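Assemble and predict.
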Amino acid sequence: MKIKTPLSNEDAKKLKLSEMVYITGYIYTLRDAGHKKLVEMIEKGEKMPFDFEGNIMYYAGPCPNKPNEVIGSIGPTTSIRMDKYSPTLIKEGLKFMIGKGYRNDEVNETIDNCDGIYFVAIGGAAAKMSKCVKSVEIIAFEELGTEALRKLYVEDLPVVVATNCSGETIY
Amino acid sequence: MRKIKSSIIVEEVAKLCIDANCNLSSSIYNGYKEAKLKERDKLSKDVLEILIENADIAKNEQKPICQDTGMAVVFIEMGNKVVIEGDLLEVAINKGVAKGYEEGYLRKSVVKDPIRRENTKDNTPAVIHYNIVEGDKLKIVVAPKGFGSENMSALKMLMPSDGMEGVKDVIINTVKNAGANPCPPIIVGVGIGGTMEKSALLAKEALLREVGESNKDDYWKSVEEEMLQKINKLNIGVGGFGGMTTALSVNINTYPTHIAGLPVAVNIGCHVTRHSEIIL
């Protein structure tokens, strides 16, 4: 199935568990260090660098791009390291995430409560996934290098539904 | 004595870093293809096809197979008749790692301090293991290690009375606990014996073996086969989506140990478990 971002609640509800989904549109990358910063910003009451409504966060930090490339290799990183921060971001309105591997019970419950979706990308298929990225822009935390917050435009990025809107999970 | 210039080591280490990260070993690549033939589930087949395509793109364009281009683990076997001219060997290796990660557009993933976490920006320092051997050659193995799989590894100091069953439990439980996190199909490196750090090193070295290469001792070869079968019945599967291909290989290395101990280390390697080597 193909989906477009921002993802509407109606479209999200149509997604079936363990279904392969191809995403087109803008998505946002962030890893451990950036999550820590976002949570600190929320605690201080600061405005988020992008609107969470309907948008998808991808847990990833790319390789540097060669001069002729849009982006270097970019696959998912292990999601459980974000679990400490995710409930805070989800409460702030972030409902859709892409990562790799299982989440803890608290995150699964928070995703379930907000009718969110947790997608997993194919770990290690990073060269292939870089081909789906058509543009990239750093929108915050440039000092974090690979861990900066990047806005990517992707076409047909392959991911699998790991936790659906009904709270069912493949793990 | 045979003299080797440190500048040659810098160049070779740089090339090995790039080669290991961009060119998947043929034994793993063939492992994907065999698994694709065996799997019945469509999602598993589709994911294996993506992994095959990914390895092809990486090779053709000389770009990293995975964005986690790892911390560089370097194994040195230095002949006792070799002298390095110029920089110290350690300095030369680290210069090579910095050069390879910069010129190969590889990700710099190393932080200076485990708590204060400032990126060193050139992926140094490498983790280096030295061995002195007979002869006038210098063997360099570069094995970049990603941390999705490294984080799922484990070490346990068993009691001798725990025996083989205890060892098997550690292996199976480590793989079960890892689930989808280390990017299956995995390579399972196991080190049994020695001291605490020796078992960890044995496990790391076990990851350097090609898929299909067994322990030369028939007893341990049969344990490797039994463990591989059991792991592939855990239904973790390719990408963690279920199926019969959780691991491509279980590699066990052993060493003599103390009368009071039975150390077991399990080092998990992902589906791109990398290493490249050269003999100078």
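The two ends of chain B are 14 Å apart (CA to CA).
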